[in-house]
Amino acid sequence: MILKEHHDPMGAAIWDYFHSGEAERLVVQSDMFEDDELPAACLFRAEAEMPAWERTALRLCRGRVLDVGAGAGCHSLVLQERGLDVTAIDISPLSVQTMRERGVRRAFAADVMDGEREELAGPFDTLLLLMNGLGISGRLHRLPQFLSRLKELLAPDGQILADSSDIRYIYEDEDGALLYDGDGYYGEVDYQMVYGHCRGPRFHWLYVDFERLREAAASVGLQAEMLEAGPSHEYLVRLCR
Ligand code: SAH
């Protein structure tokens, strides 16, 4: 599903920030946590400003690359400058428009789950999903189906590079016991973004721990390898056939 322009708060923030050098507050709301702010500047991070595991992921990219949920295109631009053949997709039309203006040559408004899109005719040697890109799957029970779709796009010896985060620590007491009392898995979150008068749709988002990711990947014939752990429960993973 592609977002409608008036329901695309993150795209509006990205568009404003690129065109005027500033943006209003982009607020991330959820039932579980207090309101949080995502500064638009973060989405325009240069390579030197990226966390270490994102720089590692960029270094490992090879061949034909698909940047899934590319946002403002920060990773696509770095890879393109290195001479890689990059395709960037996002469900946010304003983000895609901004990516094109920033110089991303192949940027398309597309949902990665849409099997009909010509631009998504693989195979790709690398699928890149950064800033918790596996979150797009939304729910733990949908993760195998999501990974299986990514596998369809992948060349036989291709790789998926993605990061996620184990958010168990949020619900742990001092002894490490899990205090989560929700219905499902503790990494399942519902979000809504708000930018000025623009309110986006509510959407499901998934933070998954490595062990559950490994199991979901194995169930669709993918092997998961932990490549790097970040300082606060984030990790970078590579999935291959
Ligand atoms: N990768 C970028 C942006 C991450 S935010 C960065 O690291 O800065 C996640 C992005 O995924 C958002 O721009 C959102 O619009 C996009 N997205 C969400 N669901 C998607 C889907 N089904 N297909 C493609 N992109 C999607």
Task: Give your account of this protein's structure.
With 241 residues, the chain is α/β, with parallel strands linked by helices. Helices cover 25% and strands 28% of the residues. It is built from 6 helices and 12 strands. It has helices at residues 9-20, 52-60, 74-81, 93-102, 143-153, 210-219, and strands spanning 26-30, 36-37, 64-68, 85-90, 107-109, 124-129, 154-165, 188-195, 198-199, 203-206, 223-229, 234-240. The strands form 2 sheets. The chain has a 7-stranded mixed sheet with strand order 5-4-3-6-7-12-11, sandwiched between helices. Strands 1, 2, 8, 9 and 10 form a 5-stranded antiparallel sheet that branches. β8 and β9 (198-199) form a beta hairpin. α1 (9-20) runs parallel beside α4 (93-102) and α5 crosses α6 (210-219). The structure holds S-adenosyl-L-homocysteine (SAH). Residues 10, 43, 68-71, 74, 89-92, 95, 111-113, 130-131, 136 line the site of S-adenosyl-L-homocysteine (SAH).
Low-confidence stretches: none
Question: What gap, in angstroms, lies between the N and C termini?
Answer: 28 Å
Please indicate the percent range of residues in DSSP E strands (runs of 2 or more): 25-35%
Shape: globular
The succession of helices and strands, N to C, reads HEEHEHEHEEHEEEEHEE
Q: Strand order within the widest sheet? A: 5-4-3-6-7-12-11
Helical content, roughly? 10-25%
Can you count the helices? Answer: 6
**What would the average pLDDT be, to the nearest integer?**
96
- Classify the secondary structure makeup into a structural class: alpha/beta
**If you compute it from the alpha carbons, what radius of gyration comes out, rounded to the nearest whole angstrom?**
17 Å
Largest sheet descriptor: 7 strands, mixed
Bound molecule kinds, no repeats:
S-adenosyl-L-homocysteine
- Assembly type of the chains comes to single chain
E-strand count: 12
